[in-house]
Design goal:
The protein has 101 residues and is mainly beta. The protein has strands at 19-23, 26-32, 38-42, 57-63, 66-72, 79-81, 97-100. Strands 1-2-3-7 form a 4-stranded antiparallel β-sheet, with no helix packed on it. Strand 1 and strand 2 form a beta hairpin. The protein is globular.
Length: 101
């Protein structure tokens, strides 16, 4: 059973341009990355606690020979793995996230 609930149509999301959404009381950023995967992360930047991740820069990073979709915070440019939430810049608090195939 899936825990996914609809926010918008996949065709409404432009690749590499995150969209902000309010899901219940939680702010989320919805991202369609280069790999056509849909990623949903908290819109709240883990470091600053500001609702800005939907204004972040979508990219990718080579990790041990695998290309990983990333999102950089627009404030301090800390880069987060969109699948795991890991911060590549340091041991900062990870960004809560999930992936939808």
């Amino acid at each position: 059973m899936s825990n996914w609930q609809s926010i918008c149509k996949v065709t409404d999301i432009d690749p590499n341009l995150p969209e902000a959404a309010l899901f219940g009381t939680e702010q989320v950023a919805v991202v369609k990355a280069w790999d056509e995967q849909i990623y949903v992360v908290s819109n709240v930047d883990p470091r600053t606690q500001q609702g800005v991740m939907s204004r972040g820069i979508v990219g990718d990073r080579d990790v041990e020979g695998a290309r990983r979709a990333t999102l950089a915070s627009p404030i301090y440019k800390e880069v987060y793995d969109l699948e795991t939430g890991k911060c590549y810049a340091n041991d900062a608090t990870p960004c809560p996230c999930t992936t939808h195939a």
